[in-house]
């Protein structure tokens, strides 16, 4: 396991307690995921730990289940998706946007106001699109 994979696996052990923190973590994941449009939300990950976390995270944040899930015995890249328009609209509205509107190029700080939400957002962004180098290597 690479250093970055180990860090991501450790971050995935964080409990999903507060709904506001779950929403903030989802926000971070979605801003750096593969597809976040009014027609489809698709998250692709090679991390088994993140793949296990995503369904719980989105259920806690929005009360939603994914429309497309990877097979339980999947290895390598795993794909999760929302294709149902009403589910996608619910996610967009949680971040202060409507699916028909263009996504703004700034972060909606209102989503990150409660304690722990900023950390949860950064965790989600890193899990979805981040990388880190082992500090013991050059």
Helix and strand content put the structural class at mainly alpha
Helix content: 40-55%
Pattern of helices and strands? HHEEHEHH
Principal-axes shape call: globular
Q: What average pLDDT do the residues reach? A: 91
Number of helices: 5
Strand order of the largest sheet: 1-2-3
Low-confidence stretches: none
**What percent strand?**
5-15%
Radius of gyration: 15 Å
Q: What is the strand tally? A: 3
Largest sheet: 3 strands, antiparallel
Note the gap between the termini.
18 Å
Structure in words:
It is built from 5 helices and 3 strands. The protein is globular and about 45 Å long. The two termini are 18 Å apart. With 138 residues, it is mainly alpha-helical. α2 packs across α3 (48-62) and α2 (19-31) runs parallel beside α5 (117-129). Strands 1-2-3 form a 3-stranded antiparallel sheet.
Could you give a quick summary of the protein structure above?
The protein is mainly alpha-helical and 138 residues long. It has helices spanning 3-11, 19-31, 48-62, 85-94, 117-129, and strands at 35-36, 41-45, 78-82.
Give the topology, please:
Layout lengths: L2 H9 L7 H13 L3 E2 L4 E5 L2 H15 L15 E5 L2 H10 L22 H13 L9
Antiparallel strand pairs: 1-2, 2-3
Helix pairs in contact: 2-3, 2-5
Descriptive keywords:
single chain, 138 residues, mainly alpha, three-stranded antiparallel beta sheet, 5 helices, 3 strands, 9% strand, globular
């Amino acid at each position: 396991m690479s250093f970055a994979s180990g860090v991501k696996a450790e971050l995935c052990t964080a409990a999903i307690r507060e709904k506001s923190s779950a929403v903030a973590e989802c926000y971070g994941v979605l801003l750096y995921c593969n597809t976040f449009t009014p027609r489809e939300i698709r998250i692709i990950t090679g991390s088994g730990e993140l793949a296990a976390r995503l369904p719980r995270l989105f259920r806690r944040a929005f009360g939603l289940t994914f429309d497309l899930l990877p097979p339980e015995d999947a290895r390598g890249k795993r794909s999760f998706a929302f294709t149902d328009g009403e589910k996608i609209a619910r996610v967009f509205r949680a971040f202060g946007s409507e699916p028909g509107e263009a996504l703004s190029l700034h972060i909606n700080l209102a989503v990150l106001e409660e304690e722990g939400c900023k950390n949860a957002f950064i965790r989600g962004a890193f899990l979805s699109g981040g990388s880190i180098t082992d500090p013991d290597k050059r």
